[in-house]
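Quick one - inputs below.
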Amino acid sequence: MAAAPEPVRDIATLGSIELLTPKPQQSLWYFRDVLGMEVAHTDGNSVYLRGYGDFAVSTLKLTGAKHSGVGTITWRAASPAALQRRARALEACGFGVRWSENDFGRGPTYHFRDPDGHSMGVYYEEQKYVAPDDLRSTLKNLPQKYTARGAAVRRSDHLALLCKDVATNRRFAQELLGFQLRETILFEKGSFELGSWLSPNAVHHQLAYVVDVKGANGRLHHISMWVDQREDVLRAADVLTENGIFIEAGPSKHNNSQAFYLYSYEPGGNRVEIYSGSYLVLSPDWEPVTWDEDERGTGVYWGGALPESFIQYATPDIAQAAPVGRDVPVFDPA
Amino acid sequence: MAAAPEPVRDIATLGSIELLTPKPQQSLWYFRDVLGMEVAHTDGNSVYLRGYGDFAVSTLKLTGAKHSGVGTITWRAASPAALQRRARALEACGFGVRWSENDFGRGPTYHFRDPDGHSMGVYYEEQKYVAPDDLRSTLKNLPQKYTARGAAVRRSDHLALLCKDVATNRRFAQELLGFQLRETILFEKGSFELGSWLSPNAVHHQLAYVVDVKGANGRLHHISMWVDQREDVLRAADVLTENGIFIEAGPSKHNNSQAFYLYSYEPGGNRVEIYSGSYLVLSPDWEPVTWDEDERGTGVYWGGALPESFIQYATPDIAQAAPVGRDVPVFDPA
Amino acid sequence: MAAAPEPVRDIATLGSIELLTPKPQQSLWYFRDVLGMEVAHTDGNSVYLRGYGDFAVSTLKLTGAKHSGVGTITWRAASPAALQRRARALEACGFGVRWSENDFGRGPTYHFRDPDGHSMGVYYEEQKYVAPDDLRSTLKNLPQKYTARGAAVRRSDHLALLCKDVATNRRFAQELLGFQLRETILFEKGSFELGSWLSPNAVHHQLAYVVDVKGANGRLHHISMWVDQREDVLRAADVLTENGIFIEAGPSKHNNSQAFYLYSYEPGGNRVEIYSGSYLVLSPDWEPVTWDEDERGTGVYWGGALPESFIQYATPDIAQAAPVGRDVPVFDPA
Amino acid sequence: MAAAPEPVRDIATLGSIELLTPKPQQSLWYFRDVLGMEVAHTDGNSVYLRGYGDFAVSTLKLTGAKHSGVGTITWRAASPAALQRRARALEACGFGVRWSENDFGRGPTYHFRDPDGHSMGVYYEEQKYVAPDDLRSTLKNLPQKYTARGAAVRRSDHLALLCKDVATNRRFAQELLGFQLRETILFEKGSFELGSWLSPNAVHHQLAYVVDVKGANGRLHHISMWVDQREDVLRAADVLTENGIFIEAGPSKHNNSQAFYLYSYEPGGNRVEIYSGSYLVLSPDWEPVTWDEDERGTGVYWGGALPESFIQYATPDIAQAAPVGRDVPVFDPA
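Output:
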């Protein structure tokens, strides 16, 4: 009898997130001067940014656009062979879009859409960051000097996407991308999947899918920036408040993920989390933690509850913009 | 032309460390009452312990013995097939010892020795911790209540072994266990490998090999316990000092690993680190960071320098005990 | 021309707070096992407690009573002469009650009531804490070993009292006790004083008067326990939650006082704050900071807003118990 | 029988420190860009600086000079009458120098020298800081926006002076300035006073006298800048190291004062401490904590020991510059 196939482990990590903003100058001010990120590159309508601890040359691409929201999300493959395998599998299942030549800092990328229509890509080759003299760290294993500017976020950590149907997108991430399901919110006696948290590596989650209460496709709930200490999140709250940035929720402690966080809106309207703590998952047989209505509660372990806007607001904000509808393939690999 | 073989990724994580102690009662007091760990099981001469955040039923096995030092170190395989592959590979290369039946909390284990002679094992099946009522956490994703006792370490993090020849043992870990080399200290223009830090996953290192200046085999430099915040390391320094425990070095910040740490001696004589911070490695093509004499300096980024004892002292302490000499196979897979 | 008289500076500091509880055993568990305080003495229906950093033998007296609320609040005079001066001044203004012999740990005390009727006392002689062997610290300037138990609060910090008329009680504290007004909330174009924060020393406030929205007398809003780091407040939130203690608000940052805090209810029903940060006031000519409706906002600088219960609930809870009415002298020293 | 006179309490707080530097531009860079202080005023050869939490318009005066060291140290009186009393008392005892007109931000100042010859002044009137629009805080009780620049020190905290004879200077501070002795190091069975820590208010110490092992007069050991959290000291260590600033000692925890600290050298050569924690003293009858040779140990509670330079080096550095000898009055008020 043949053994069960071993799980797919072709994706190594989240690579980069493209954020769309109708206010590019103000958004740049937010990420560079308030969060303390560095500009690595500028190209036309896009600015490429990085945290001082990001080893890749850039992990955040800020692109001027008519509406806010998320552009292309890229994932790094574990090897050249893994990249080819994922490209073939995605194409075979009908999610594939095309190969593209290099975007700044990344090699050939196979583009695809998740079942909800979010634009994604997978690549292997990545340009390492080499700091110019004035940004060289005195720590040999730190890619860039700790400039201590503003909230001084260390690196991009994860993102959360809204979608019409969490289960479908979650299964896509598990089966086609090989992500492990870490936690999931199941309401109505398990029949309604409100949100799911997934990861291709030890980081608690690098991708979350949460149901879009407005029934749209392709929207962004938030991106998340890592700081090393809970105290850094508190300090970020001071920095954001002194700079007139709206803090929607937190500093508080999530129940799912256990992370300590705050949520702000960058000037372009996108929700940005400052995030620390959480826990690593190293178990190959991790059993997803499930939360029902009672266990989920107000969405926090302690600290101020998540407000209604946390459910209602996402980008693009479809009170103003039409839904990003698109014809998406049905995910049914069976 | 055939593509290069993909790297071995059969080990998921460090599983457990057996620590030998000539003062088992005092060592138990140290780990339970001062570090705040829980006793999960007792069996003959051994006590099985866990941090409140360890998902496995136990990650530290404390065994009464004539001398201090390290017993068997176990690694968890990524799948049942991965376990079989590693067992076959280790046996084929002459490092294999035998299969054993289950130790507490772990399934069938293939035992082997590293080139320096340290006793190791690899297994797949693992017993998850299920807390009794009085230790159940109010956080559903936390395996056990945060009791806040003493230094309240969260989980076992890594260990550092001494060996006669770092390069040989490091290559063994890379090639036979599939670990990625993260950082290495190379003195004398690269000809002398003083120490190397390796990991099978995103944790910066779960295993370090450091040269044994006394030329012995099979000794332990330290085991390391994780706390979530740098502030917790400072608090641990208060707790240890109030309990009369010797702090050998730190709180300080390592240059390699960037971690914030302190080193204490548990009553049995073994060196125990309290550790936080560091950085995750998610790159499949990570280039090891190398440190020469000048870059290594005093071994710290800032804070009190590592003392001479940090080089000279290890367990068993061969000023008192004879070296753990043994006939070890030469690792030369080429 | 005669110079203006120098300000009264006869009170050195808050001495102790007596807390009334209808559930003395559970309240004791809360303060000793959850907050980590030590029992210094037991006498009849009262238990005398202390934080590890309190230099006095006790700063919190827990007394079993039919209702929750505050008992006698004592203030330490700056000198024997200062004690006599305050006793004479309080008596002359009609607030005096009587001299009493020693309560545990304190010398002769002159009792009085504030205009709202809260029971207070002023004393000079105080018993220093001398730790028994098992509680002796390894730090010579720390009165007691840091036991690291539970939230491990360091010392009593301040209290907030409700009253019918804030202005009257605030002027009493300024003029008869010599406290400096630090901050005040003035609504309705300055005509309504919602709350005032006062102190006899550099601590931001040791006494707050806040208006009782239920129009009662003599009630307690909260007592407050100090921890050294904001991170300790976060840790306390974990400890309280794991022990099933209700956190009413926070961790958040106050706008007035700038302190980082959380509020819990001890089992007897009294509100207890865990508190850190804030700022010292060393200026003899400090100009009180005033907050109007807009500036006060939700009562926080950032973090979860103060809930309605923060205004409505106090002890004794007069939804269940009749108001502690009493005939109080009118404070009109002019 | 006449009662004992009440203690002198005429000094409210440390007002400002003048620091002399042979490298004014580099020193300014250190305090403004690395420590994150603000320039409040410039006048000739002096720049007036402040921490974001200093209520006075300036607390640090940086003056270009041939040698490093300390200029004039000013103390704020508790009232106009207190200023007159101190001026008369200092003049009567032979320590007085002269009244001066206003230095920036401070009213009429009576100048004097301590027994060791350090230049000091006492004043009452002080200019409060009013932030320009771009530096206005969103916190009404914070005098200036938290800019989060560099180490972002909050305020000036204290200073330590070297002197030939600690006991003489300590008694001067106690008897003529009314400071309370908080801690003292007494070697050789109490016959040799190595150092003493004093304060006019609840802050643990605002002035320390330490013996000058080179037998000189009028030298400075260090000035100290406050940050709110121990974590901020760790962060400062990162900031200083990234900026190439030498850290002489720490981050570590003092035994006396319990404070968490690091010491750096600013480019002009003066030692600057980054400091947090410690404890408040509110007792009018505080018994000084004494430390003998054994208790003092390496000068730390935990963390790296204080190095030899901590004893040997001070400013001006008399290995290069001649001692600042001066004819000082003998303090013998009896």
